[in-house]
């Protein structure tokens, strides 16, 4: 069984967070792309006829908290110009609203808005411990391997704040059980991620890798590791370019070097292009 098939097999254990046709997004990116972010309650709702046949609704929203785009207004008027799966608003509904200020429609509700549920308030659903504006700090509890965060919006396939509060480490298989994507798996205590002979992930000491390879306990799959982390493999130099995150080089078992380019490296604009991940030949 490969790592990718292992991820699929365990994918249903965590939650049903794949019901939204919205790709995963970093909460900080979500923060940056919206003008106003609030904890709000629907006061009333109206249907707005549209000459282009769009189903547009208007809402008066009581603002409980401004997380971003703070104003003096206690009530704001927003529009919803697209139907979102599992986001049907009625009077008295409370939600985390992501809002953009548009020239055509004014304030428009965005697709990552989500209704609050259970004990999960709007602040919990933002999934950022310290907001970029320094307000509304949310401490992360110390987590054990059995910890599960119930306050994760369904449009996330995994908890983007998962590693906050983990102080004693957590095994790769446990991470997969919680829905963590393969490219996001982390090793702790200076261990590196490898793929065992049966395809399952494990964290080992870097100096033990040659011995483990001699015993066929792990696969020599640096090319596969590179591609798993969205990288481009250069066979001649045994290097990985354009991998998804600088952190992943060490996690792949490579050594992070300075800036380098190759003809196989098409996009120089990526953050990780400043580095190349070098492996043993």
Structure in words:
By secondary structure, this protein is an alpha+beta fold. It has 7 helices and 12 strands. It folds into 3 domains: 3-17 and 157-214, no CATH class; 27-125, OB fold (Dihydrolipoamide Acetyltransferase, E2P) (Beta Barrel); 222-278, no CATH class. The protein is 17% helix and 24% strand. The strands form 3 sheets. Strands 1, 2, 3, 4, 5 and 6 form a 6-stranded antiparallel β-sheet that branches. The longest helix has 12 residues, at 3-14.
CATH topology of the largest domain: OB fold (Dihydrolipoamide Acetyltransferase, E2P)
- DSSP, total strands: 12
| Average of the residue pLDDT scores | 76
CATH class of the largest domain: Mainly Beta
Termini separation comes to 26 Å
Helical residues, percent? 10-25%
Q: What count of helical segments does DSSP give?
A: 7
Low-confidence stretches: 1-23, 261-273
Run of helices and strands = HHEEEEEEHHEEHHEEHEE
β-sheet strand percentage: 15-25%
> Helix/strand/pairing class, anyone?
alpha+beta
Global morphology? elongated
The number of distinct structural domains comes to 3
Sheet with the most strands?
Answer: 6 strands, antiparallel
Indicate the radius of gyration in whole angstroms. 22 Å
From the 3D coordinates, which CATH architecture of the largest domain would you assign?
A: Beta Barrel
In short:
With 281 residues, this protein is an alpha+beta fold. The chain has helices spanning 3-14, 27-32, 122-125, 172-177, 209-214, 222-228, 247-252, and strands at residues 36-48, 56-68, 75-80, 94-102, 106-109, 114-115, 192-195, 201-204, 232-234, 239-241, 255-257, 276-278.
């Amino acid at each position: 069984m490969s790592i990718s098939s292992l991820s699929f097999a365990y994918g249903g254990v965590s939650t049903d967070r794949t019901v939204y046709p919205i790709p995963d997004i970093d909460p900080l990116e979500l923060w940056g792309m919206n003008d106003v972010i609030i904890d709000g309650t629907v006061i009333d709702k109206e249907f707005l006829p549209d000459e282009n046949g769009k189903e547009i609704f208007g809402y008066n929203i009581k603002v409980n908290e401004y997380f971003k785009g703070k104003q003096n207004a206690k009530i704001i008027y927003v529009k919803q110009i697209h139907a979102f799966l599992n986001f049907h608003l009625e009077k008295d509904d409370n939600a985390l609203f992501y809002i953009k200020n548009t020239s055509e429609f004014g304030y428009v509700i965005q697709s990552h808005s989500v209704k609050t549920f259970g004990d999960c308030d709007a602040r919990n659903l933002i999934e950022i411990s310290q907001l970029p504006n320094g307000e509304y700090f949310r401490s992360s509890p110390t987590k054990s391997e059995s910890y599960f965060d119930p306050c994760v919006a369904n449009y996330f396939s995994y908890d983007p704040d998962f590693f906050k509060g983990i102080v004693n480490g957590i095994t790769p298989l446990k991470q997969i059980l919680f829905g963590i994507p393969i490219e996001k798996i982390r090793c702790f205590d200076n261990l590196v991620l490898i793929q065992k002979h049966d395809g399952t992930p494990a964290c080992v000491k870097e100096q033990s890798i040659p011995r483990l390879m001699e015993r066929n306990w792990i696969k020599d799959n640096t090319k596969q590791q590179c591609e798993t982390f969205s990288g481009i493999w250069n066979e001649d130099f045994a290097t990985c370019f354009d991998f998804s995150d600088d952190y992943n080089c060490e996690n792949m078992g490579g050594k992070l070097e300075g800036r380098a380019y190759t003809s196989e490296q098409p996009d120089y604009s990526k953050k990780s292009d400043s580095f190349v991940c070098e492996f043993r030949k």
